[in-house]
Amino acid sequence: WGWGNNAEMQLGLSRHTESFTPPTLIQALSGKNIKQISAGRSHSAAWTATPLPRKSLRLGIPQSIPTQFGHLLGLPIAVIRVRLKLLLYFSDLLYSCWKLLPLCSLENDWCKLEPYCWLASPMLRPILSPRVYTLPLVHTIGSTMVQGRNYGPQVVVRRLSRNDINSNVFSQIARQVNGMDPQDLRLPSRAWKVKLIGEGADDAGGVFDDTMTEMCEELQKSDCLVPLLIPTPNSTNDIGSNRDRFLFDPSSTSSYLLSCYKFLGILFGVAVRTKKPLALSISPMIWKLLVKEPVSWCDLEENDFLYAQSLRGIQNIDQAGITEANFNEMIPLDSFEGSSWKESLGLKPIVPGGRGIPLTFNNRVEYVEQAVNFRLHEMDLQVGAVREGMAGLIPVPLLSLVTASHLELLVCGAPHISVCALQKITRYRDLCEHSTLVQWFWSVLENFTDIERVLFMRFVSGRSRMPANLADLSQRFQIMKVEREMDGLPTAQTCFFQLRLTNYSSPEKLAERLRYAITNCRSIDMDTYMLIRNTDNEVVDE
């Protein structure tokens, strides 16, 4: 029997019916002595072979404890094995009842009652089996996916405008997408179709990918016209961790900018659904706030080392011989004010009425606690807007089971381009895998810097990141041989993740031509027939 979606004839029933609500007998399988079946979102299969007996999970025992697990050294390996079995058993129990957990809002009164609060505790997340937080998310996203359509609503983008504000791709797409029904965006590949005004490009996927990458680049520019992201103070001061990461701008509180944060959340949701990661370097603290993990002094220190040190100095100032008598002479603060994540905002009250509360030797510990709490929650308004945007595309309550690092991996993918991983998903057309040209190509790519590999990925796919799991790629990378003049420039079709190479006289010449192509060709302009259609004669609401 078969029922449900049949857009790709995955049920083995009539090709003219896209879905079957009541279970319908699959006549083609009648009398075939079927012993096994499997079904997915776009396939189904049946076997006459008898299922193999399931093997019980067997946990091996290592000869010694690896050095990276220093906290386990000295414990008997048998005891550790028993503990691991207990944790796996607990994960199985939790997975069997995840729909009953209080995931919607940890602020609800009944969620605060034991044992419910412990089941939803962020402290549990790192020790849970991955399937506890991956399978519910995959199942829910799959069951709400729009089927039978290649792309969602169309958005119009004019990148060649003379007006800087109007040429900003992020703001153009945000204005259009924020007014759409989120249900129309729940597609597996392209949430919307991009029409580029005045450019020769037809969006079969590559234009969508390219504009997504361009929006990420815009947001991370220092002169971005939509100020959503700011560098961490550690980046500004060139000290400590996360010097290459960004935070949300706590001063962006206007209704327009909050709608832009909501659109950023939509982009996060699109990245999770389409498995096409965004090239954004966002601080781990932001991901913690998005999944409602607790943040602490350590998060402050990892993003603003100098401020954390100054607060620690105030708290422990008595150890330096400072007393109540000379405290105000040594501390340049006289009230409950503190600095913001954004230095240009100056001092801000860290509690309501903070400017009127004097800072003294006796209340310095309370001051430090309030200053840390203010910083850790200064971006709550922006985080809430992002979560609101995500909620239209992915089940945000399930983020209560997800670790911050896993969400970052889902949204932003692997930070580095692995040549070895790319080789595993490559197909060759009119080329032999072991040909000289192919060997030269992989050698050249291996010798590229990280920045050059990112440019290469942008050139061939429109994307700057690869998903952490290669199985999530919707297309395989193709290398195609074309007959053109010797040492010609490589070309690519981003819509099909395809690179076209001609013959080259040497690997050095191939490297030179490939570097030129990925560095200088940043536009999609070979679909020349589209220039007739995508003219500036159309009226576009800017």
Structure report:
The protein is an alpha/beta fold and 542 residues long. It has four domains: 2-47, no CATH class; 154-287 and 388-412, Hect, E3 ligase catalytic domains (Hect, E3 ligase catalytic domain fold), CATH 3.90.1750.10; 298-379; 419-525, Hect, E3 ligase catalytic domain (Hect, E3 ligase catalytic fold). It is 37% helix and 10% strand. It contains 20 helices and 14 strands. It has helices at 77-96, 116-119, 130-143, 164-167, 169-177, 206-219, 233-237, 255-274, 284-290, 297-303, 305-315, 327-330, 364-376, 380-391, 404-412, 419-424, 436-447, 450-461, 507-520, 530-533; strands at residues 2-5, 19-24, 36-39, 44-47, 154-157, 193-196, 229-231, 246-248, 337-339, 347-349, 426-429, 477-481, 491-493, 498-501. The strands form six sheets. It has a four-stranded mixed beta sheet. Strand 13 (491-493) and strand 14 form a beta hairpin. Helix 8 crosses helix 14 (380-391) and helix 10 (297-303) packs across helix 11 (305-315). The longest helix has 20 residues, at 77-96. Residues 527-542 have low confidence and may be disordered.
